[in-house]
Inverse folding.
């Protein structure tokens, strides 16, 4: 009984930490840039469903990006992500959803090679005009990681980047908690393994066909 009670308390504490972290990150939405003429919105990828249709997480990220694109007066919309979990390119599936939601096709740029968040940034940066403010969109904790990666890869352009996230809908509640736990793991991994390592901040993008 004592072991069960201790385990329950541990789980409850961990869940509370995750929830509070999510809520703290989501507050950044209020501090995200308002009108930023000439900005570029970058949507970090997520796998499509096995049948090639848009996953709920993809829809959430694209819808969040559309809102940011509109309120900030952006002129470019980049969707990043290759075929990672299945044969469907994440960027292409998200592009189809963005068009379905009313975004003009000629405003959309796809980046179809990235296989990770690090590569989302490395592969998309060359598509962003050097003087363009960049707004990185995902759920808030993930968007913060995207900005951190951008600043590591492009320290001279860090001041031009902003993270813009939003609170996922209630149907993604369980996914939100799992995603937050993953962000804790990745933050620790990055700190221990990559940050401060010579050459560890070099942004590399896989060649087409790799």
């Amino acid at each position: 009984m004592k072991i069960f009670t201790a385990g329950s308390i541990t789980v409850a504490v961990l869940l509370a930490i995750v929830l509070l972290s999510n809520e703290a990150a989501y507050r950044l939405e209020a501090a995200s840039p308002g009108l930023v003429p000439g900005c570029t919105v970058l949507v970090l990828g997520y796998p499509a469903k096995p049948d090639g249709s848009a996953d709920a997480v993809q829809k959430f990220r694209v819808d969040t990006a559309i809102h940011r694109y509109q309120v900030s007066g952006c002129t470019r919309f980049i969707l990043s992500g290759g075929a990672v979990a299945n044969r469907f390119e994440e960027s292409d599936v998200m592009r189809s959803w963005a068009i379905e939601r009313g975004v003009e096709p000629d405003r959309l740029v796809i980046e179809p090679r990235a296989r990770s968040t690090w590569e989302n940034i490395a592969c998309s940066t060359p598509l962003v005009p050097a003087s363009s403010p960049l707004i990185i969109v995902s759920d808030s904790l993930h968007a913060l990681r995207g900005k951190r990666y951008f600043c590591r890869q492009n320290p001279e352009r860090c001041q031009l980047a902003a993270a813009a996230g939003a609170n996922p809908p209630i149907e993604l509640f369980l996914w939100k908690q799992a995603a937050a736990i993953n962000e804790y793991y990745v933050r620790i991994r990055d700190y221990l393994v990559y940050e401060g390592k010579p050459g560890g901040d070099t942004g590399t993008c896989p060649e087409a066909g790799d």
Q: What stands out?
A: Strands lie at 40-43, 76-80, 108-111, 134-139, 161-166. DSSP finds seven helices and five strands in the chain. The CA atoms of residues 57 and 172 lie 8 Å apart.
